[in-house]
Each structure stands twice: as C-alpha cells, then as structure tokens.
Design brief:
The protein has 308 residues and is of the alpha/beta class. The protein is built from ten helices and eight strands.
Length: 308
Amino acid sequence: MRIFDPHIHMTSRTTDDYEAMHAAGVRAVVEPAFWLGQPRTSVGSFVDYFDGLIGWERFRAAQFGIAHHATIALNPKEANDPRCLAVLDVLPRYLEKDGVVAVGEVGFDSMTDAEEQVMVRQLELAGEHDLPVMVHTPHRDKVAGTRRTLEIVRQVGLPAERVLVDHLNEKTIDLVDDAGCWAGFSVYPDTKMDEDRMVAILDRRGLDRVLVNSAADWGRSDPLKTYRTGQAMLAGGYGDDDVDRVLWRNPVAFYGQSGRLLLDDGSLDATVGASAADFAGNTLQRGEPLAPAAPPAPAGARTSGAEG
C-alpha cells in the first residue's frame, strides 16, 4: 500500500511518527499552514514558520523516505487578528516556491467578516499564482460555513476542480459534490471522521474527487489514520487498486495541478534514518559522534591512569 497523506501537520509530530508512517507505506505528505495554538504576534513569526515548512521540514521528512510538500496561507483563525493581516503581503513570494502545491488552509473558523475578506483575497492569490486551493470548513456551523464558502468560490471565479473543501462529513458532502469541487475528509479521533464512516461514504458516493487525510497535529490525533482507512477499505470489500486510487492517485491528481509535486526528487528512495547531508548546518543528529571503542587490553597488560 502506497499512501499520500494530503493534510498532516508534521511540525507537530516526532521522528518516531515519520518512521511509523514510512513503515505503513506513507511516501508523500502535504502540510498546510495552520495556527500555532496560541496567537502569533508579528508577521516575522509567520515568515519563520513558512521558511520552516518549505525548508527544514522537507529535509526532515526526506530523511525518512517521505516527500514533503506544503500549502501556504493565513489560517482562518488568525484572520481575525489585525496584527496578522500584513501576512497577506508576504504570501506571494512563498506561493512561487518549489513544493508549495496550493494556497491553504483558507476558509472560515467563526464565520466573521474579517475571515471572509481574508478568504476572498487568498482565493484571488490562488488564481494569480495558478495554484489550487485547500479550504478549511468550520468546526461549528459546518453546513452554513460550507455553503457560504462555495458561494464565495463561485463569486471569485475559481474553477471548481481546483478547489479542495476539507473536513467534510455526511451533512456537507452533497453540497461539495454538487459544486464539483474535490471533497476532503479528515479521519481524526473524536471530532471529525472515523474509518468506518469514511468507508460508508465511499460506498455511497464513489471514489472520484475524494481525498482522505489524517490531519494529525498537536492534538489527540493519529498519523496512521490514512493507513487504517486503507485497511478498512480492504476489509469492506474494496480492492488494492481502489485503495491506491483513494490514498495515492487522487492526491497526486489534485495537487499535481500545481506542477510542483516533488515525487521524482529522490526522496522516495531515501535510506530511512540515514542523514549524511545537513540543512543550513543542521542534521537530525544530536551531540558529538561517539569515538570508536578502544580494543580490550591483553590479559595482564597495565593500563594508563592512577593505580590503586
């Protein structure tokens, strides 16, 4: 089973997660820009974060045989903070970077006027930079938020096939299917979707234009939820080709519209855990390398040092 997790926040995860993901078949990921968990207080903090997404995190993933991509945006939750709005002015230079495969996450959190204005501008930026868009649907008032999001997408004029509407459920999927957009589902403990519900949705609507992700982050989440969904599909009667379509070919098709996928850059063939190179002078190694152990002294030989 080969897996492309199209929405996972690896800056929140450990190298153990990367190892487990590779062992489960994950060979590529997309990491959307998201909020820190506490307020960012300056544009500079976003600049450092974006640099980390397209630099260090891509390097770190490659050490474990995983091709790392990013989407870049001002997150909906942070769109309400006036201190963050100048981020919109620095986005264009990041939206031209290799490995940046979409604008995202954009959308609603609390459905405020500020969030809507920021979403509209970022949808416009997607058109200006010829990139697809990843849309976040709100955790509260999800149906209303999804409906309004689709209205805005139509008003801005983005082609539906270049829009991924994420965090969907049984109540919102028909809205997105009717609009012709791609449908994203986060298989995430407690608050979003589980594997069995995901398979039931696939049974009802089919495998076209659907992406399944783990959305794993610093909350209670599981970076192997894509793998577990594949296993649930197999147990539910789907074949290997169906699983490959949902977990690999569909993400490649959607994000491939950017022309910036890094699936042929050699990282897929990386030796897991090997890190001969470094990034900006840093590697995954910590501390001084161990000196070779001295051979044991012959029996009866005297050793240097104090005698006692």
